């Protein structure tokens, strides 16, 4: 096997680990490792899946009905909406459209684990700006937007801002983002990744869609997804709202026809059932509050949790802590040497998380 000659792979790609999903949960375990929505799909959404175009035919390459619908929902033209197979696809498309060899892409770190590979795959250079170091409990894990603006050079082509930040939880405020956008040159793309936007309750949080930032700043594109609040992770559908020309560039680098008819139908049915789905979001937010308050009462330092997950900064005890959760039938997402992200899942999972966290807090918090 060692002498086998294989096709030459670009060194930057060969050095990357291929994407590996977290372990599947056993029959009695709760899967709290991928920030999925724990609720079963709505019957109306399942029903919509039976009304797709015949599967021997290609889907509508433009996802026209969904773009029309989202345009009406947010008061923009369909051309100012772009739909793809998950918002992670749109991240790839936008980075490929803006950044290449010699260019830089800035993002906060630690943040969404897909970000580091985006510039690398495009041949560009990723620039990680550490999250803000703050004194005092429950206040870490925030973007340092001043440092991110300071990191801009004449090679910067794109900046990703993740709010709420996956995996730590805090939001970027509206005032912070406004000041940041003023500091970034107008020809640098700013991707505002709001994958968890529907779970946000902080009144001062930036909301790229409500604030219509892309209208005043055509270099800002807002990303949303149907995977989290709307519970369609398995169907892969996400969207961007922004300037038509910027989104045209994403449409150009994207693989055509990757949004299936099933995904488009389910997304439209989810918008029809939005009120019902947002009640589920409210239930998840209630569970999040119970979880955060319980963890803090046990003595954990938990940053503000504004997504559907909480962050435990377990530092160099992370692997041990994750093992304790797995022992308790809870599949969580450890980031070795840093911390553990736990999704807010089924109602019964909340107590189970608190039982394990309570039993390890004194031994495993750094
Ligand atoms: C911050 C962030 N952005 C984007 C995504 C991608 O979501 P999807 O591709 O399912 O729309 C995720 C998924 O976990 C995420 O955490």
Automatic annotation (TrEMBL):
Q: What is its EC number?
A: 2.6.1.57
Assembly state and interactors?
A: Homodimer.
**According to its UniProt record, which cofactors does this protein need?**
pyridoxal 5'-phosphate
Which taxonomic lineage does the organism of this UniProt entry have?
Bacteria, Bacillati, Actinomycetota, Actinomycetes, Micrococcales
KW Transferase (keyword) present: yes
Per its record, how is this protein called by name? Aromatic amino acid aminotransferase
| Single GO MF annotation | pyridoxal phosphate binding
Signal peptide feature range: none
InterPro entries named among the record's database cross-references: Aminotrans_II_pyridoxalP_BS, Aminotransferase_I/II_large, ArAT, HistidinolP_aminotransfase, PyrdxlP-dep_Trfase, PyrdxlP-dep_Trfase_major, PyrdxlP-dep_Trfase_small
What keywords are assigned to this protein? Answer: Aminotransferase, Pyridoxal phosphate, Transferase
The organism named in the record is Microbacterium oxydans
- Quote the catalytic activity from the record: an aromatic L-alpha-amino acid + 2-oxoglutarate = an aromatic oxo-acid + L-glutamate
What family does the database annotate? Belongs to the class-II pyridoxal-phosphate-dependent aminotransferase family.
Q: What does this protein do?
A: Aminotransferase that catalyzes the conversion of aromatic amino acids and 2-oxoglutarate into corresponding aromatic oxo acids and L-glutamate.
Q: Which residues does the record list as N6-(pyridoxal phosphate)lysine (modified residue)?
A: 228
